[in-house]
TrEMBL record:
GO terms for molecular function: ATP binding; ATP hydrolysis activity. SUPFAM superfamilies: P-loop containing nucleoside triphosphate hydrolases. PROSITE patterns: ABC_TRANSPORTER_1 (PS00211), ABC_TRANSPORTER_2 (PS50893). Keywords: ATP-binding, Nucleotide-binding, Transport. Pfam families: ABC_tran. CDD domains: ABC_NrtD_SsuB_transporters (cd03293). This is Sulfonate ABC transporter ATP-binding protein.
Length: 282
């Protein structure tokens, strides 16, 4: 499935109210440990992500991408600063934020259908309604013929479809994704990127997507936030001015790629230097 120029569809009935999914990150800092061994993973990051925006967090290993995403998810509190979701401080995980990880966090003892249905059961959604949601979401992600399979019998790409379906079934306004396609081969990755763009447009989610890949960030995002390596500060906040579907071979795409590569490489060199001097713990 290829993303089309008509990505933005009319507002579906279940869409969140404007502003309902705004994420306001204000002077966010996070320090792991204390004393000599303390690691400043994030320092004074301030960024507001409007409802419906697709944002990529980009930077080399150890620059605090997962730390920031986990703080938005409510998994790991900040040391100082605040994160507000639709105006309310984030203090713990909530049904308004769904997380997709790189390592296909599926229940291996459950079938695809049971994995997708799991959150609905916890939420107390009635059987008939849950059946309808599972069928619709499975259809959306091309999983209808795989509902009886177990995760071990699926390819990496299919497993990641299930992970996305599981979150989508709960219909959170915000999807947080930590290198979800990092372990996939290039063609599967592109297919899932296109599917994600389609889903984002159709369901009007706010997406915060972590990646190492400059090309992936430019292909997907409305906006790219580049972080520095230790401490993780905001290095650049860049709007991607390209219309979708994006042509990765175009001159504009490649100009942006060069610009971002310069920024990321500066931080990558700091990471490499830290590794050589033994101060990196990644
Ligand atoms: N629980 C922890 N205890 C101590 N240090 C940590 C912990 N989690 C992360 N760090 C450190 O904080 C820094 C930021 O880590 P983080 O995982 O957010 O980076 P990242 O950008 O997601 O990297 P990667 O691309 O490798 O996933 C790193 O230096 C890491 O070693
Ligand atoms: Mg990470």
């Amino acid at each position: 499935m290829t993303a089309t120029a008509t990505l933005r569809k009319p507002e579906p009935a279940h869409a969140a109210a404007p502003g309902a999914a705004e994420i306001a990150i204000d002077h966010a800092s996070k320090v792991f440990g204390t004393g000599e061994g303390a690691v400043v993973a994030l320092e004074d990051v301030t960024v507001t992500i409007p409802s419906g925006q697709f944002v990529c967090l980009l930077g080399p290993s150890g620059c605090g991408k997962s730390t920031l995403l986990n703080a938005i998810a409510g998994f790991s509190p900040l040391t100082s600063g605040t994160i507000r979701m639709a105006g309310r401080p984030v203090v713990d995980p909530g049904p308004d934020r769904g997380m997709v990880f790189q390592e296909y966090a599926l229940f291996p003892w459950m079938t695809v259908e049971q994995n997708i249905r799991f959150g609905l059961d916890i939420k107390g959604v009635g059987r008939g309604e849950a059946d309808a949601i599972v069928a619709r979401i499975a259809g959306t992600l091309g999983l209808s013929d795989f509902l009886g399979r177990f995760p071990k019998d699926l390819s990496g790409g299919m497993r990641q479809r299930v992970a996305i379906a599981r979150i989508l079934a709960l219909d959170p306004p915000v999807m947080l994704m930590d290198e979800p396609f990092g372990a996939l081969d290039a063609l599967t990755r592109r297919t899932l990127q296109d599917e994600l763009l389609r889903i984002w447009a159709e369901y009007r989610k706010t997406i915060v997507f972590v990646t190492h890949s400059i090309e992936e960030a430019i292909y997907l995002a409305d906006r790219i936030v580049v972080l520095t390596y230790r401490p993780g500060r905001m290095k650049r906040d860049l709007t991607v001015p390209l219309a979708r579907p994006r042509d990765t071979a175009s001159a504009e795409f490649n100009a942006l790629k060069r610009e971002l590569a310069g920024l990321v490489m500066e931080e990558q060199q700091r990471f490499t230097q830290a590794e050589l001097t033994g101060s990196a713990v990644d």
